[in-house]
Design goal:
This protein is an alpha/beta fold. The chain has two domains: 141 residues, 3-Layer(aba) Sandwich (Rossmann fold), CATH 3.40.50.2000; 184 residues, Glycogen Phosphorylase B (Rossmann fold), CATH 3.40.50. It is built from 15 helices and twelve strands. Helix 11 packs across helix 12 and helix 11 packs across helix 15. The N and C termini lie far apart (53 Å). The mean pLDDT is 93.
Amino acid sequence: MIRTDCRHFRAAKPCVFNKIDGSECPGCQHVAPFGERILVIKLDAIGDVLRSACLLPAIIARHDRPYIAWLTRPESAELVSMMRGVDETLVLAPEAVARLAGGGWSHVYSLSNDLPSASLATLAAGAAPVSGFFLRGGTLVPSNEAARAWLELAAFDRLKKINRETYQARMLAILDAAGQAVPPPALDIPAAVRSEAAARVASLFPGSRRRRVGINAGSGARWPKKMLDEDGIVRVITALLARADVDILLLGAEAERAKTEAVLARFADEPRVAAALTGGSIGRFVATLAEVHVLLCGDTLALHGATAIGLPTVAVFGPTSLPEIEDFGGLVSKVAADGLDCLGCYGDCDKQRHCMALLDTTRLAETLLARLGAA
């Protein structure tokens, strides 16, 4: 007898416990029967995928022993596989689309207001309800008034700029769970990845017992002014080193290499400044974040990764919405330039006095050190 109702069942290959200790159905001590079969569709940028993990406890609470499959793009597959509460990661490809169509889902969650996600939700749902967005007659349809309000927020810059609710609060309303507490996203990073990150960072500061400040240099290609430029980062580092004996670790992926190397060149003779870029691995990136005591970043993946590991963070904001970001009870200190009426423009500009240039880098350094002292 094969327990196809067990959440560990993997159809064409042995389950993890058969590999670990030889367990076989039906006498397996690890059997975990599931009830409802739930599909979550999230195809957005990696940071948006990660912050949506905050919604998993609310989704799980709505259903009977749910088996949760999460559909995402290839670049987010590693991340989704580490999310606590997700049983199966589906990577967008023809095979996954076939799985959607034949899945027999009890409920479908499609919380992104884009046509590809809504199309896939409509294909998967059949007679099952959809929370979020789906298609009717080829047109995007919100599932309730909260989803309609999110659609309007995306359509009109005026509403986006005056919004004061967090992303998670908006999404919980779409789930008919408004007012619930929002936990940080929960990730399970493999122990080997954590150990490798710890050894790598320690090797950059041999023998040092100083506390570490992390700076994520990246901003993403879409909105370059999500983060300080090279000169701004240099000013923050200079202010930090003048005020405290700390190690400073520059973080990011391959896209940040040129910017990071330019900053490092400005501190060529300073052993307290180093870099640990992590390529395309989300697990290595988050594990490396865990090796610093406080983080400076923009509204990017680093911010959401930091919340997943409880890392005190100072986040700067310019073109994207500051109120939309959850601070998780003060874990995230949010900073924006004073005196600008164009914050949250969701664009880029050629102004000399723009949102990142007007940030007080001395204040940023002092905020980081204050958070470091409280950590």
